[in-house]
Each structure stands twice: as C-alpha cells, then as structure tokens.
C-alpha cells in the first residue's frame, strides 16, 4: 500500500536541548504503526512535530506527497492529520457536545458533521449520555473517549494517538485498544505512541523503538514483540 | 430623604457607574483569558474611544447611536493594530517584556492623544435630552437609562457570540488551552485579533458613555477607570466574563455608597482597598476557582 506519512531525518530542539536526533519513519495507508519507548525518549515530541505544534530544525515530513514540516498546526489538521494529545487535553470547562463540535471546527458540511457525531456516539455511548455535561466532570476513561471522539470529528486520514492508556485501569485499556483497532478497520490510518508496549505491539502492524531521540529498532510488530532485546527493555522480561 | 430611599438612589447611581466599569473590565478579562496579559493600555483605548465618539458627534454631526458604532469600529481596529504591532512580536517572550510593552503603549496613546487633540479637556456635547424620571423620591436620569440600556444590549450580544457562535467557541477553547485549540484547526492569531477588537470596542462604548455622563473628556481620563476596571476584573476573577460584569457592578455600587454615605474623597480608596482584600483573601476572585496557579 502507498505511503501516507514519511518522516525523513528530522531534528527537533527545545532551545539548546536536542530532543529528536535524526529520526526517519514511515506510515503506510491503512496501517497501525506504533512508536514505543521509555519516558523522555521523544515520543510526544515526534507526534507534536508531525501535527505542527513544533517545528523541526532540519528534515522533511511528507504527508500524502506534500511537505508539511514547519507548517502551522491549524493548517495541518486541514490536510487530514488529527492528534489526540498526551493527557487528553479536553476542554474541561465546555460541554461534551461543545468539545465534539470543536473537533469538527475545520468542517462546514453540517449534514456530515451530524452523521459523524452519531458515529462517535455509537462508538462511545457513554459520551451521548453525558453530552450536556461539563467535560471536566468526566472520568479519566470517559475523557480519553472524548479526546478520541473529538479527534475523529475532523474526519482524519491519519490519527495520532499519544499514550491513550495513560492512567487507565486494565479493563478500560483493553476497551480503548479494541476501539482503536475498530477505528483502523473502518479506514483510518493510525500512529500510536505508547509506553504500554505489550498492548501496542499486540494491535500494531509495525513498530519503531525510540531511545533518547533516536530510533534503535524497527520492524514487524509481532517480530519485535518476540525479540529478546525488546522483551528485556520494554515488556518486563 | 429616608435612609432606604437614599440607599436605593445610590444603588441606581452605582449600577450606572458599575456598568461602565463592567464594559471596560470585560476587555481586560477577555484579553487576559487568551494571552495572559494585563493590558495596561486598555484604559487608554477607552479614552481614544471617547474621543472618536466626541469627534463623530461634533465633526460628523451624527447622533449618539451612530457615534457609538463609529467609535466601536475605529477603536476596535486600533486595539487590533496595537496587538499586531506591539504584543504579537513578543508572543514567546517572557511575560514581563510584554507587560512593560503594555505600559509603554499606554504612555504612547496618552501622549500621542495630547499631541493630536491637545491636553485641554473637551466638553462632551449633550446628545440626549436632559430628562429625569421620578419614581417616588428616586431620580433616574436619561444618561443613566442610556448607559443601562446599551450595557444590557451589548452584554446580550457578547453572550450570544461567546456561547453560540463558532468564533466564540474557538475563543473559549483558545483561552482554555491554545495549543489544543490549534490542533482543532483554530487559528490562534485570528482569535487573538478578534478578542482585541471586541474588548477594545466595548471599552470604546464605555468611553463615549462616560463622556455623555460626565460631559468632560481628556487624554488622561483612562488612567483611573482603567485601574478601577482592572480591580473589577480581579474582583470577579480575571479571565471570567460574568465575573468582570459582576465585579464592575459591585465596585460601582460600593463606590456610590461610599461617596453617598461617607465622603466622595474615599471613593477611590475604597476601590483599591477592595483590590487588596481580594488579593489577600480570595486571589482567584468571586467567580474564580481556587487554583494555585502562579500569575
Ligand atoms: N517543553 C519542553 N522544554 C524542554 N525540554 C522538553 C520539553 N518537552 C520535552 N522536553 C524534553 O525532550 C525530551 C523528549 O520528551 P518527550 O515529551 O517527547 O518524551 P516522551 O517520549 O513523550 O516521554 P513520556 O513517555 O514521558 O511522555 C525529554 O528529554 C524532555 O525532557
Ligand atoms: Mg510523551
């Protein structure tokens, strides 16, 4: 299948801190690709650079053939990339419905928006029950669902997920991951960042391992899950 | 006059004055909400608004409502320009730089106005008939009715924009979390510009109404009301729109009561005593949540 996203040797800095040191990676249409690594490895930095919140100092990011490196975030979402940020970052003081409406901010097709809202509610029935509630009063799991629903409202071609399992109970993590698989099956390509490498590798097609700003391993998710090095470093033996 | 009646009378005066503070405080609080800047030039924007209204009435010979509209548009654009030229280049600079810049803009507007329109106070023309309505022993005059009417209409429009329109939702989202709003496709620069336009045009209305109420305007007229409106915004909880309105009204009423029952010399002292009390006992303001955010 065709390449959707191609990152070519990017370097990202926070002031003098060199956070991403020449990363290259690729996401093909229809895939679930996961980026795993320890705290501070640079996973969020990579996602935030793709979505335009950070600008790479050097390197190229190509999405569906066009260069998007350095373009502002509010334009990149219009190209079809939507990010679920680390820690959810829902608009706590707005209602669930308003959060979802903001997810569709770039769209003008009222009918399509309504249909997608129904789709989100089918996927996350708990959001529908709470649609007029302030988003800040939702539980952690519900907030994660809202953040995902909000991201889907822009109808992304590529969905970037930053640690969706963070702070959730095991049962809820399972639920969230099966929803991610389902979103992928209905046609959305996914780049998933996780510390929970076990779960991430179990649903991904391919994986990259990030260590202090560099990619140290990459390949088929199943093979990586079986590899001795990865087991030792990330899967608890 | 009986005590209760005098109290009611001061309440009417206080609410009129408080409406003016509320209109200015809204701009403070909206701008703070979105870029975390105490815009010290906001009082001077209000002054410019008063002058634009003054010239619209005296030179262009329009009546009060068109004068208000002209002043809103011109002053709104000035607010936008100030943001683009003075604050936007400092978006990622330390907060103290932009605060000092705001003070610089304030002086610039004051002294540029003195240069262009002279420091001499101007007498604001009488734009509405000098009528007074008597309800029992209470007096409410035409200017007060005008202030109340216009304030209520503007608050209704503002509430509609902020709560119901797409732009209003983008504003609220960007105030809460600018980065995430950008991920939704919100152009933060546009939203910030728009916020300055709205805040400045509300201040312009306050400026014109003060001209109508007190009949006199001058290039330094923005300093005191600017500070008072800042107190009002802090009292209500900076960044919170209904807080700015309530804060403005409370401040106006307290000032009216102090000047009515004690002495008008203590009026300003009362306002700043409130600021100190709020900062001591509830720094997040009447409507604010008690967070430990460092400001
Ligand atoms: N705003 C910032 N300013 C300075 N340094 C930063 C900033 N954000 C991240 N860093 C640094 O960049 C590096 C990569 O951080 P990043 O947040 O991308 O890691 P991560 O892999 O997402 O970690 P985690 O799993 O904890 O979320 C870290 O060393 C971090 O300290
Ligand atoms: Mg991270």
Overall description:
The complex is a heterodimer of chains A (about 240) and B (about 300). Helices cover about 40% and strands about 30% of the residues of chain A. Chain A has helices spanning about 45-50, 75-80, 95-105, 110-125, 125-130, 140-150, 170-185, 195-205, 220-225, 230-235; strands spanning about 5-15, 15-30, 30-35, 60-65, 65, 80-85, 160, 190-195, 205-210, 215-220. The longest helix of chain A has 16 residues, at about 170-185. In chain B, helix 3 crosses helix 8 and helix 9 (about 225-235) packs across helix 10 (about 240-260). In chain B, a hairpin with a 2-residue loop joins strand 2 and strand 3 (about 140). Chain B has helices at about 5-35, 40-60, 65-85, 95-115, 140-165, 165-175, 180-185, 190-215, 225-235, 240-260, 265-280; strands at about 120-125, 130-135, 140, 215. The model of chain B has no long low-confidence stretch (mean pLDDT about 95). Chain B has eleven helices and four strands, in the order H-H-H-H-E-E-E-H-H-H-H-E-H-H-H. The radius of gyration of chain B is 19 Å and the shape is globular. In chain B, the strands form two sheets. Chain B has a two-stranded antiparallel sheet with strand order 1-4. A two-stranded antiparallel sheet of chain B has the order 2-3. Classes of the chains: A alpha/beta (about 240), B mainly alpha (about 300). The interface of A and B includes residues 77, 92 and 98 of A. Bound molecules: adenosine-5'-triphosphate and magnesium ion (MG). Adenosine-5'-triphosphate binds near residues 17, 39, 41 and 86 of chain A.
């Amino acid at each position: 299948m065709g390449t959707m996203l191609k990152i070519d040797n990017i370097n990202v800095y926070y002031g003098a801190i060199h956070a991403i040191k020449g990363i290259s990676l690729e996401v093909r249409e229809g895939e679930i690709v996961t980026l795993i690594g320890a705290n501070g490895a640079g996973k969020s930095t990579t996602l935030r650079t793709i979505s335009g919140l950070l600008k790479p100092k050097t390197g190229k990011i190509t999405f569906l053939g066009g260069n998007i490196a350095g373009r502002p975030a509010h334009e990149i979402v219009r190209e079809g990339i939507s990010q679920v940020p680390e820690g959810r970052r829902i608009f706590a003081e707005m209602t669930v419905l308003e959060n979802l409406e903001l997810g569709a901010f770039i769209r003008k097709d009222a009918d399509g928006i309504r249909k997608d809202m129904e789709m989100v509610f089918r996927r996350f029935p708990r959001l529908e029950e709470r649609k007029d509630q302030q988003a800040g009063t939702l539980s952690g799991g519900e907030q994660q669902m809202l953040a995902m629903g909000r991201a889907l409202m822009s109808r992304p071609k590529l969905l970037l997920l930053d640690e969706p399992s963070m702070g959730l109970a095991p049962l809820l993590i399972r639920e969230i991951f099966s929803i991610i698989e389902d979103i992928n099956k209905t046609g959305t390509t996914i780049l998933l960042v996780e510390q929970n490498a076990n779960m991430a590798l179990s649903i991904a097609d391919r994986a990259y391992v990030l260590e202090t700003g560099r990619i140290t391993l990459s390949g088929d998710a199943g093979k990586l899950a079986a590899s001795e090095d990865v087991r030792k470093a990330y899967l608890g033996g | 006059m009986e005590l209760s009646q005098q109290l009611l009378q001061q309440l009417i005066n206080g609410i009129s004055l408080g409406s003016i503070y509320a209109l200015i405080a809204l701009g403070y609080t909206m701008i703070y909400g979105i870029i975390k800047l105490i815009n010290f030039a906001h009082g001077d924007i209000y002054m410019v608004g008063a002058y634009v209204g003054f010239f619209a009435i005296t030179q262009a010979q329009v009546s009060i409502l068109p004068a208000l509209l002209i002043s809103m548009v011109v002053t709104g654009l000035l607010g936008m320009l100030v943001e683009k030229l003075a604050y936007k280049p400092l978006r990622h600079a330390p907060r103290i730089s932009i605060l000092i810049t705001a003070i610089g803009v304030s002086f610039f507007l004051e002294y540029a106005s003195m240069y262009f329109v002279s420091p001499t106070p101007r007498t604001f023309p009488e734009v509405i008939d000098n009528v007074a309505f008597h309800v029992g022993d209470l007096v409410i005059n035409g200017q007060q009715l005008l202030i109340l009417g216009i304030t209520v209409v503007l608050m209704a429009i503002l509430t509609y924009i902020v709560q119901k329109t797409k732009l209003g939702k983008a504003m609220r989202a960007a105030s809460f979390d600018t980065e995430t709003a950008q991920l939704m496709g919100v152009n933060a620069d546009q939203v910030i510009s728009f916020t300055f336009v709205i805040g400045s045009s509300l201040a312009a209305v306050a400026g014109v109404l003060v001209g109508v109420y007190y009949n006199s305007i001058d290039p330094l007229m923005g300093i005191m009301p600017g500070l008072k409106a800042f107190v009002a915004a802090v009292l209500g909880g900076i960044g919170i729109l209904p807080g700015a309105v309530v804060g403005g009204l409370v401040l106006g009423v307290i000032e009216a009561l102090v000047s009515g029952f004690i002495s008008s010399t203590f009026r300003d002292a009362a306002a700043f005593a409130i600021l100190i009390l709020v900062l001591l006992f509830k720094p997040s303001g009447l409507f604010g949540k008690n967070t430990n955010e460092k400001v």
